[in-house]
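Hey, can you fold this one?
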Amino acid sequence: MIDSFWGNMVTFMKQLIASLIALLTFSFGCLVFAQSNSKNALKYTISGFVEDATSGEKLIGANVYDPNRLDGTTTNVYGFFSLTLPSDSATIAVAYIGYQTAFFRLELDKDIRLNVSLTPTGVLGDTVEVVAEAVDLIEEQTLMSKIDVPIAQIRSLPALLGETDVLKTLQLLPGVQSGNEGASGIYVRGGGPDQNLILLDGAPVYNASHLFGFFSVFNSDAVKNVRLTKGGFPARFGGRLSSVVEINMKEGNNQRFKGAASIGLVASRVMLEGPIQKGRSSFIISGRRTYVDVLVRPFINKNGDSGGYFFYDLNAKINHAFSNKSRIFLSVYAGDDQFYAREKNSFDDAEFNADLGWGNITATLRWNRILSSKLFSNATLTYSKYKFDINVRDRGGSPEAVSSSANYFSGIRDWSARLDFDYLPSPRHTVKFGGDVIHHTFSPGAFQFTERGGNDPVDVVIAPSGEINSIEASAYLEDDIKFSDAFTANLGVHSSAFWVNNKFYSSFQPRLSTRYRLNGGWAFKGSFSLMRQYIHLLTNSGIGLPTDLWVPATDRVKPQQSWQGALGIARSLWDHQFEFSVEAYYKTMDNLIEYKEGASFIGLDSDWQNKVETGSGRSYGGEIFIQKKRGKTTGWLGYTLSWTNRTFDAINDGKTFPFRYDRRHDLSLVLTHDLTGHWQFSSNFVFGSGTAVTLPVARLLLNTTGSTVSNRFFGNNNNPFAFYGGELFLYSDRNAFRMRNYHRLDVSLRWHKNKRLGGRIFSISVYNIYSRKNPYFLFLGTNDRGDRVMKQISLFPIIPAVSYRFTF
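Sure. Predicted structure:
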């Protein structure tokens, strides 16, 4: 087995080296060509970090720009930049939306280290700031299908029960579906929930929801920035088919101690941050917990019986700068959901206890270092664990009585090491390369039952699949090349390998994104990406239940794979106040898995591989996105027209059927406006075509001997839901019907006031303000005449909420 593993790894490394050499050769040729066409002058490099002057937080995506030469760059995810210019005097502008622009007059006769602190401002700059930001206008960006959402805007939007939610904000973006109403899961360009790589400080989060999907696990008080990539994937990303959601935690204020706390209808939270060593190290800790169980305890705790539900999450992070070149970070997340029930018999002291819990733990240790003025490195170790656990205990009231316990457990655990490099030889080249190794441990499901006190003690463990260990490795190289002012490209390759039991998979994944500036300021963009995913999520629900199982590719179940192509146009409008883009995409997905008809996680009599079918998917459509990022009024309009289908040989008689979350039309309008004084108004309106469902189309009446005595077919375009009762129902093709269209309007009003010792924010929000009865699910019932009819359950009517937040 060891010889086989190393033989496969040698083959993978040969393929990887050959592909990297080819790309390096091409990149080097482009670099030589670019250098040969530049002026024969000495060049020097300006490098350093850009940070918030009041907190020391590094600013991601800040623009460092020479407005005279029209050359510039942006800071990476760690706030680092490197800009190489000809030797001469130069004016450098450093700009970031919401901050005062800083200008530096430099004599470039040597390499210069420049660390920049920007001051926040309520006024978003002047025309000079707009020029300085031109380096990062949407028409200048090579990559497409990438959206950054400011965390301040996320906090300002209305939310269900007043709970600010990062993932629900992403649902308002084009190309992103929300699943069931109120759920925080995301379905990106026809993909499933397992096809989203959700990274918290670089660590994957496998179940990102609380309360069966109604809230996400991300506490906005601890979040620094959010970025969604849904296509045109650069080579540094791999392991998922549909999207990458990058969520970075705050680093903590290294200048002074600060805190914030908030009280809402569902949960309360608190955040503390401050310097450990002023200017060099800092910490942040943030926690959130529901208190529904505490409020209802007096009403349900009677006669020794009790029960309830709560969730909590905790974020913590510390960092320390050893020098201007070296910094280390440690961040931790822990979150849990708990349902519990307690019952005690007052007569014989017997007890019954049931607990259901699920949660995540992630940890990231990161060390980044400036190796030279043009080379930046980042080494990362991560740990991620997701578990789902059911415990039931029944204790008899006497030593002789029978006592039993049952436990069901499933989960996934990762250890990983990653090394990334950013190399910036010139403003025309940004080269990124690196790789990682991940050790997965899958627990697809195990059941243990014990019984004591009877004649025959029982101790049974059932684990049909057992614990599965696997290794995933990848390496990448990408180069963002500026061939001319009009034409740029991001070229890359991502190579990966996966070893599980005695099976070895490898993949070569080319990536390409291009941008060409047309006359009139418009940019034409195109992208192609090939993706491979070695893990699957087994689910027969649409709401992200914790019973969904993570399983690996095996010798019987192949890895998922896809390719996606996209074309689009983009431009900034009206003095760069608005960003406008239109994209069309086509995506194929192969080796998707679903449960067989009637199968679920419950059956422990066979391996999960015996319960699944394999098929394929197709998704295509177009998206329009208009975003305003600055000024008193901000927000966006997003529209998606799309088709998403699935095909499985053993499901729906092999005929292609719509994916459950195939929505022909999806529209979102988001608006935030600063009123006079201390008031801010925000709203969002969403519209979506009805969810695809499978419904009965006929019923068969049986007599006592089992023969059919009559049948009636029903269902038509005029009244597809009305039918009569029966003993046996025949169903339509899968997802052949649609529920009613979905739409709602949410609004909120915030009052804020800053004082010397801190600030106060009071929020009033209304979810579904006109109380639209949107369908959550359909069920078979009867009307007043006793006829069988399809009835609709609507979960969320108009819901007002209030919250209060203060800082100190």
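Residues 123-134, 704-726 have pLDDT under 50 and may be disordered. Let me know if you want another pass with a different chain boundary.
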